[in-house]
Structures are given as structure tokens and as C-alpha cells.
């Protein structure tokens, strides 16, 4: 049976990796103390002795632990270790009473059910979502938590928050994921999304072997799940399938519908006001959904990677019909351009070990413009006056310096630093956010006097010629001189969320903080990890940590050994995943090091996946967004130069660096690479051609910049093309247009190219066919 499940499922456990050759940099987490864990361990002993009340008291008592401290829950043989807050761990252990000590659960519910029932009644009377959340947070094992979870999912569904609805509903039963089993053959599958497993079951015999495994959970789970729900599992599975249909995920919906046919073929209920068999209602809805128009394409590009989920497919003016149309896709000359200072990366520590990936050390590709309505904004330096806004049609000034100096800038101290300048921007509505001031995010304690004026965050109003509307400074009683903003904020309109660094003599600490977008008041601040950074022995660090946001959950790739999911409401950690770090100072000359050029790689959120490319890890990997459970990890040293996660199109993760890569987004299998693989180590030549800047996904195509052209590829890799170098669908000759490659943005029917020293804007041409907006989408 295990071989049936393993077939076609590629994840960490099917990919052997070599141990790191040297000690990885240390990571420090706020974990519960040994004394706290020893106290909690009494729970198991007391349960075994059937001392029910004593067992309940042992798990509920404080024992000196702080509820926000972390507890490891990952399997002991995994190189990816997962942690959850102590408060969640307590609830997880109490949930086990349903199978380990039903008498204890009955006793426990007598104590908490009256409180939970009052909260549920109040929530229904006042439609109070906070009361429902309080039930599932504090009284998860009460008799009413399954109802609260069901209603929270319904509310999220009404708001169109598909992942949030699924997060609540999947907690109602351990059978909504692949269940935990005592049989070690199935340990690696526990907690995985069901559809990723069942989609590979092709025969009735496979299903007959698998269904019994899906209908029981005979072991403790390492994710939070209610163990004895009153909610019918058929109703729950129907809701989960409905979410997949509504979010436009037909592949998942079809797999979940097949599961319903096999397990709940005669279950009846109501969906969308229609009553009948669930399988018939859902099949009809799925068929209808295939004809639904795609969401309209957004004309702006409001932040790095195009959205707060760091995943965006741009919409072109008109679909491409053939390769000849690609060459004439944009005008033969820029509509306008503006000269920018050229930032040099020569002498920077990582770059000194070999050629930089997808850029030149003599002229960095540090500019990442954004587009808001009809305005393109770029930050061309470290001061507020270097933020320039131009009308996208003709380049006329909205605000900012009319003429930027044409010069090469070598930032002070760069020759002693790890990291180079980058200038991403963010926005919400008509407000542009930028980080200005001192470049370093970490300074060796012996060189504090060399630091410039501390960095600050500014919010500029596009409607008022760049008037300053908000300013964040790390001053006052909450801060000391070792704090720094680590990137630009992301905003939901009311709050600003931003990564922070705090540097001591021995380590860097990564924090996430929330500020009021109007008053700049600190709302909360949360420590994620303390770690020995890549450049721990170097005077300066220049890091650029960008957060990702979906609904009310923040995701942070720290590049310090961990990835974290946090509640945007209060900063509470939902889960934290520690990945295998590599030692920056490894002296093995044959070891791959190009991953260390990943300096702008926020978590990419695609459906229920969090895709991560840390600078201190040799692998790309995907985590389940709701639990942090590892879904897949790429092979070690595979695509180490993938410093840009461009997005997901046609169910492929498209990543780039010197090469362009297509990964199956659900398994991590490398399906294609362009050009053909070529060993690239310090001192060796790059492949020809090679990437030069950050590309974009447009409709069903990939625009990949090289120094002299933009190569265009299909996002889809046909079955027969797997493992082969993809064919170029067309080429846009940049050299003939007098520009070089760089970081691309497509918005408002304009292609924006930010090269090392120019911002160039090209108008898109119409092709022979009329525009068909329904073929474009934002995802």
C-alpha cells in the first residue's frame, strides 16, 4: 500500500540529501524550557495511570511556561523542523483525550463547556467572530469548538477568503488531511493535503487499499485537529470541495470530488440553494466553473512581485498568436526613459567569491519600480528626494527630482559588507512606502560610529505631489541604536507590517512588527529568530526581508534559518519551520554557493502553498500554508542560482537566475530548464544565454530578460517536453531598441525595464486580434 501512495508523490522524504559538510550557523528560538516540557510530559504518564483530573491539571497549569514560547512537533528524522506555540500544543494534547482518555475528556468538558456555550450563543446573537475565535483558541476541546470552526469557515467563505475557510474547516477532523497512523510506512504522509495523495490513485484496487487509511486516525497528530466532531464528514468534505471550485482550482476540485464519489457517494445536502446528492451538485458546479470568466486583470503593479502574496500574472494588451507578434509586441523605441545612478557591487563579500547571479557587479540591478494607476515610481537612492514618480504615458513628473545624476555609486563600507543595495517599493491605495536612510541593517558593534543616519520608513501621497503622510522611526523607549528596518512594509490600509533586525555582538535577531498606517504607533512586535548571520564576522550587513500577506496571516522568510506564519491581528506565531542552513564560510571549493545571492525572496503564496527560496539554504521548498508541514523540497544543489521566484503559471513554479526553471508546483519536480544544465562555480563561465534581471509572467507566457533581449517561453511544459530544454516562443530584441535587460514590470499596457542605469518604458502594440480580457488573470 505504501508503494501506491509513494508513486507519483515527490517530497522531501523521497529525496536523499547529503549532510552538510561543516557546522551550519546556529539558530536560537524562543522554545519552552526543559522544565516546562518535563511538566507537560506528566500528562502522558498520568493518562496511562488513568488519573484523569491530574492529567487535565498538568496540561492546563502554567508550570512557568509562556504561552507564546515554541514547542517542536516535527518528526525526529526530518531536516525540516516545525514548531507551534505552547498554547496550541496544550490544545493539541487536550484534543488527544478523545482517543486516549474519553473519561478525562468528559470530565474536562464539564469544566469548560458552560463557558464555551456562552461564547457560542453570544457569537450567534451578535454575529461576533471574536467570540468564535476565542472558543477555538482557548476551548478547542470543548463540545462546541467544531461548531465554531464550521461557522468561522462559513464567514471566511462569504468574504472570499478561500485559504482561511479551508484552514478552519480542516481543523474539524484529522480526516480532512492524510491521517496519522501508527504504521511507520505512512508516517511521512501524515498531515499532507488529501488531494495531493489521492490524485495519483488510478485503479479501483488502489482506492480499495487506500480508503481504509483515510477513514481512521489511530495515532496522535502533530497538527491541531478536533477528534470527535458532530459535523458529518460528508458535509465537511463537500464544503472543502466547494472552496476548491470557487477559488478556481479545478484540478484539486476534481480530485476531491472523486474522493467524495468513493467515500460518500450517496451523501445529500444543500449547496448554493440547491439540494441533492453532493457529488451531483458539486460536479454540476465544477462543470459550470470551467466557463466562468477569469477575474479582470489589474492594471497596477503596487508592490514587489506585483501583489502582497508575491505572486502575480500580468495581463497583456492582447493575446499573442505567433512568434512574429512577440518581436513587435512593444514599440521599437522607448516611449521615454530616465537615467538612474549605477550602484556598484564590486568588493562586496559574497560577490567577491565569483560572478554575481543574473547581474553584473559593476552595475547592480537594484531598482524595482512599482506602478499605481497611471504613475510609475522608482527609488533611485537612499534619500527621500531620490523617490521619483513619473506619468507612465509620457514620463512627465508627478513628484521627485527632475534630473537624477548619472554616476556610479559605491556605498561606503560596501567592500566590508555582506549584501548590496536594493530599492523595492510598496504601496496601498495612493500611498507609496519606501525605506530611506542608512543602508546597513546590521553593523558590527565595533563600528557603530560609522553608521549613517538611521533608516526610516516614509509614506508619500501620490495625490499631493509626494507629500509625507506617515513616517516610521525606531526611536524612543521601545528601541535602541541596534534596531533597523529590514525592508519596506506591506499594508492592508489600516496597518503597516514590516520586518526588523536587531544586531548584537553575537547574532542578528529577526522581528516582525505592526504599526498604525496613520499615526505610526507601534501596535505589536514579535521576535521570530535569533541567529548567527551569514556575515557574522563582517562589519556590515545589507539585508532586504519582505513580508507576504494573505487575509490576516503574515509569512516571513527570515533568511536566518526559519520561515514563520504569524497572525496579522496580534503577531502570534501560528507555526514556524526551521530548514537546513548552509555555512556561508564553508571552504569546500566544489560546494554550490549561488543561493547566497537570494536577497529579495519573500515567501510566494500560491493557493495553500508557501514557496520559499532562502539565501542560507541550498534548496527551494514548499510548506503547507495552514500548518507549516513540508510538502516538497528540491534536490540539494538543484537550481541554486534561482534567486527570483517569478510566480506560478500553468501549475509550474517559474524561478530564474542565470537559468530559467520550471518546477511542478505540487511536487517540486524539475520539469524543464533553459538553457541546458551547465556547471557554474566561481571562476567558471556562465551559460549562454543567461538571465539578466527579474522577469515576469504574462498571460500564459514567461518574459525572461537577458542582457540584450527578452526571451519569451510558454509557462506550460508538455509531458513530452519534460527533462528537455524548452523552445523559445519568441524574442524581443532589446539591443536594437538601445536598452539592456533588467527588472521587468508590465502594467497599464506599458513594459517597464529597470536596468542598472536607466528606467525605460515601452508601449505595447496591439496585434491583429481584438483584446480578450477574459484570457488574462491575476492569480
Structural features, described:
Helix content is 21%, strand content 25%. The relative contact order is 0.12. Strands 1, 22, 23, 24, 25 and 26 form a 6-stranded antiparallel β-sheet that branches. A 6-stranded antiparallel β-sheet has the order 2-3-31-30-29-28. A 5-stranded mixed β-sheet has the order 6-40-41-42-43. A hairpin with a 3-residue loop joins strand 45 and strand 46. It contains 16 helices and 46 strands. The protein has 2 domains: 204 residues, Serine Threonine Protein Phosphatase 5, Tetratricopeptide repeat, CATH 1.25.40; 472 residues, YVTN repeat-like/Quinoprotein amine dehydrogenase (Methylamine Dehydrogenase, Chain H). It is of the alpha+beta class. It starts with a helix and ends in a 16-residue tail after the last strand. The C terminus is likely disordered.
In short:
The chain is of the alpha+beta class and 779 residues long. It folds into two domains: 86-289, Serine Threonine Protein Phosphatase 5, Tetratricopeptide repeat (Alpha Horseshoe), CATH 1.25.40; 304-775, 7 Propeller (Methylamine Dehydrogenase, Chain H).
